[in-house]
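Please predict the structure of the following assembly.
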Amino acid sequence: MMENPTAPANALRDSAANGPELLLALQNVSVHYGAVIALEEVSLGVQRGELAAVMGPNGAGKSTVLKAIMGLAPVVGGTVHWRGRPLAAATHEIVKEGIAFVPQGRRVFTHLSVEENLEMGCLYLNDRAEQSRRRDAVMELFPVLYQKRRDFASQMSGGQQQMLALGRGLMAGPEALLLDEPTLGLAPIVVKEVFQKVSEINERLKTTIFVVEHNIKGVLDIANRAYVLDKGRVVHRGTPQSVRDTNILTDVFLGRVNAGAPEE
Amino acid sequence: MRELARNPRAALRLTGGNIELWANLLVISWAVAFMLWQGVGFAITLGTVFAIWAILSVSLNLVVGFSGLLSIGHIGFFGIGAYAMAILTSDASYEQLRTEAIPTLGWPFFAALPVSVALAGLVAILVGIVFNRFRDDIYVLVSFGFAIISFNVFLNWRALTRGAFGIHEISRPEIGGWAFDGDLAFLALVVVFLAAVMLVSWFIVTSSFGRVLTAIREDEQAASVFGYRVTHYKLAIWVISAMMAGLAGGLFASWTSFIDPNSFILLESILLVSIVILGGLATIWGSLLGAMTFVLLEEGMRFLPFLPNEYVGQARQVVLGILLVLLMLFRPQGLVGRFKL
């Protein structure tokens, strides 16, 4: 079942104009890298406590959505809204606003220990007690990080590094967690574990999650809201079930969708 | 044995994780043997030269090793510190010599030294704000530019530096009527400063500030999204490092009592980078080891019977170059380093 067949009249509100306000929203955001159009007037968002998934083929602009939020992409038009207000903070200040980003490829600091990596997530706090409390909470959620706390991150497997990357993001105590391809390059059994953890973070810690993912089946199983992107435009928005019902993903992956046309 | 001779990698594998130990033992025993052979006077000179180069290499390692910024302009800050010390403390009457005249301020050493350090830091702030816009290869190029510019300032701002004539009668330290005019006393003073620089560096690299630097070295963007203003961290370590180089410059000027622009040429800067790579990136001890190896090469080659004196300088560079090539081939992290360049 599709939620909204055309672009929303007010991207800061959910679906209908009188719906609840979105916690994090992109309103008509365009990102251009020189002549290359990565995003074109994209409007999408996530409600407080939700887990929203952004899917699409390679080059659709999925990761650029997160980069635009984090100030890592050249936004040439539109606005990113956070808690109903335009998000104008510089990249290094966004984490203090309550948004943590777990970049693609894990990007843990391999020359730091697991504990030091986690510490990096909230060093800016200057509150040792709070840092320690958060570290304990993260290690409780990811027991493997406790077992390997003194090891260098370089000594961990890909799956363990992904857990570390998630844990490091959680150390910031975020209200919203942005995940860029968290299962990329991981073995199927580890992929399942990562999705379980992401779902647990969302349900147990009530952290709002915005995840960009290529593993369609896995992410649709845990998401509450789904967006499909193709060639820098949103071609579908709705519930995970609506994505399954419409074959939109098959169409975009086979190039059967005209991305300039109204959303399906 | 023949197999090992054919395959040097196999020989290295045999020593396994003990390479660091062997490197330490080799350099230290080489230094001790050399000093015993040449006597106390030589040992004091060697120690002083080593301590000054060690301060320089530790300071540069903070930038190159711990922060990942390959600067080859560090000699500029060394020169600024040296010239500040020379200009402030020299009391030679240059007019009588009918050469370039500069102000003769005659400050005491301990008043001039903080100014040398502060001036190097001030220039580093100005230069660093510009340098922060660059990374990787471009960073190397702009730092190269800084080394060239600073050398030309030393050479051509004759009203201040006396250009190629240099500045002499630079004063030795004196405190409370006790002068560090003996070589042993000066060595003790330099070693105290080296210890202070090492202590400060150790605090930096083991603190949370140091961990952020390591993170920035690995992945600037990842560090940035976790709330660290990368440019500020890079500028801070750059300025601290430059101030240490300024300190080394001040000590060098006072020790030699004469400086001219030839001590601050680009080649010296490249040698300094080589010392840091030789010892190992991101290790304070490695910088000391690198500096000691360099000084032993520099001084030791004077005593090679088959090498005429006029070729010692060039031979030193050739040997250091060969050593670097071998290191890059077999041990790119340097003698005791953590990172590859």
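The mean pLDDT of chain B is 86. The CA atoms of residues 109 and 173 of chain B lie 5 Å apart.
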